[in-house]
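Narrative of activities, Objective 1.

The group set out to show that a structural description can be obtained from nothing but a protein's sequence at a throughput compatible with the screening campaign. Below is one input-output pair from the validation batch, recorded exactly as produced.
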Amino acid sequence: MSAKSSAAIRYTTLRLAIFIGCFLAVGGLVQIGALPKGLGDSNFVWVVLLALLISAPLSFVLLRKQRDAMSEQIVTKVDHTKARLEANRSQEDGAVQ
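Output recorded for this entry:
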């Protein structure tokens, strides 16, 4: 497994863990009555939306290092791909002349 995919997997796993933690916390607070329940049968949707709303800024702040590492590895991979394409293009240009 390449370093890029492991950084992406690590970031995604941590982001999902933060969401699940927020989902469980919001669900628990709704069940004990600390937060209002959704209208009718919308309780699950309410809990999911609230968990998303809370987990997004938490992920942004808490996962900065992982996001930067993943971004750096993606940029490196893109730069290598661009260099390889440029090398192929220059080889083709030389063969055509």
